[in-house]
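Input set for joint prediction.
Command: fold jointly, output tokens.
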Amino acid sequence: MLSSEVTARSAGPVRPNRAGRRRPSGAGRAPYALRVVAAGVAAAFVLPLVIMISASFSDETQLNEHGYGLWPRGFTVDAYRFVLDNADQLLRSYAVSIVVTACGTAASLLVMALMAFALSRPDFRLRRPITLAVLFAMIFNGGLVPLYIMITRYYGLQDTLWVLILPYLVAPWYVLLLRTYFMGLPSELFDAARIDGAGELRVFRSVVLPLSKPALAAVGLFVMLQYWNDWWLGLLYIQDRALTPVQLLLYRINSNIDFALTNPQLAGSFDVIPVQSARAAIAVLAIGPIVIAFFFLQKFLVKGITLGGVKD
Amino acid sequence: MQSEPRVQPRLSQRRSRAIRRELLYLGLCAPGLALLVLFNYAPLFGIVLAFKDFRPRDGIFGSRTVGFENFAYLFAGDAARITRNTVVMNLLFIVATLVVALSLALLLHELRARSPLLATVTQSAMFLPFVLSWVVVANLVTAFLDSGRGLVNQILGAAALPAVNWYSEPEYWPAILVSVDLWKGVGFWVIVYVAGILAINPSLYEAADIDGASRWQQIRRITLPLLLPLIVINVLLSVSKMFNADFGLFFQVTQNNPALYPTTDVIDTFVYRALTTTGDVGMAAAAGLYQAVVGLVLVTSANWYVRRRTPDNALF
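tokens >
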């Protein structure tokens, strides 16, 4: 988290064409060796996902007999049929995750951007003490126990959607990051807008926000990722199955806490209940959206890392 | 310039406008501040729990005060093990991440000029696991380490070696956790170092080419020395966080298996367990406070050091 900020300052903007321009000649066998190594590395990183997808299309009996592999063992969609036949909980969890991620990301961006904007204004007298308060919240906290006691005993937030959203809403690091970004915007534009009669809020909406799209996109994506991938808040504060987000559901299935999958009544027309392959299928369904989103959004994530360094 | 000079507003008017603006700014901060108070500042009072024998019925302040008893108990018992595991594992992660991320960044950079497509694909593949949750990663790990169906035991079997019960043999776990941590996280750092390499002035390489320096010499004499400040700062800041373990990695990937605690129980998992499983709230709070205070010391000293050398890179 802290470390990546450094990149922005010491590395500066990335100019991808530079690399292309230099080094015209790559003589000898080296290029091929490089390519082979790179392809091997890429494969190693993708391999585990391939194995899981294969498992989800495997026949349960063969999977138990021969184990996991690169190719499906006896190709079948039984696991998906099984999972989707009893999809109530899965759909419910999907709904929870989508609501939490959408509301959480929107609210988080709004609250943090407003705060960062105020903290970026040189004429705000309380700028220093409030910035310090944000900073201190980042480097010191009371730990898990006091927060847990507050949330469960004093705020009464357990088993509500709020508890999945509110604790992550203000991330001090992103507030400071956005503030730094806003401070770097050319102040002449602010002055020009003011001379044209724009109030502070108008300046924020019509000057700051449009100019900060790259930073907002990057922060928004990282916040979104955190909400979508979160199981920790659920693990601590959610008992109610109706409020179980996707990642927590997957955890409960992994650790056999959830019996929905092994409930014999649900087995229906299956000779063998697809336990292992259904687990894999649920995992595939749980990561599907994020992996698809990854291919469209990764350039913004990369930009975010190199631009201001955002990490959970 | 175009119109007549503007009339200076009266002083009181100016002041009231300044006050209005100040209140507006404060209003903009209010929602964020309220959340910080609720989830960061109010819990600080709960720190007293570390000095209490907490009973739910009596609440935080009603519970009996026991002074440093929780700490005495903690340091007589598990503190050494969880501290060692946390620090040693984090140091392993830092070294492994640095070495592998740098090597892969250099590899990608060399590759980019020759085969941009393959370089892009490789970088995407390395970054992909970064967006997965630890629950999913734990699921993937079982495909390798499951004693019956897992790939690793299949390979061992093919090589006529005895199968290993991975989830009950703690001695293998430092290596397993390092590999898993690299798989999930190294892509992020590769991007950081690739950006660092791209920021190096290309004329240096052109000059080196003219002087007939080999690729390897250029890496050793130009790239690595110029990356050094970035490396030093990244490592230092990682070190400043080494008292905090990644809960997801240690809890999910090990499947919270007690047999593995000798090498995988870290401060964060210990606190979680003391709070939720054994119900020893005072002890959990004591361990959490111990972690927070040492963490604060580490962060501020790392920041002090960075500030002294390169003030621009200091965190605060």
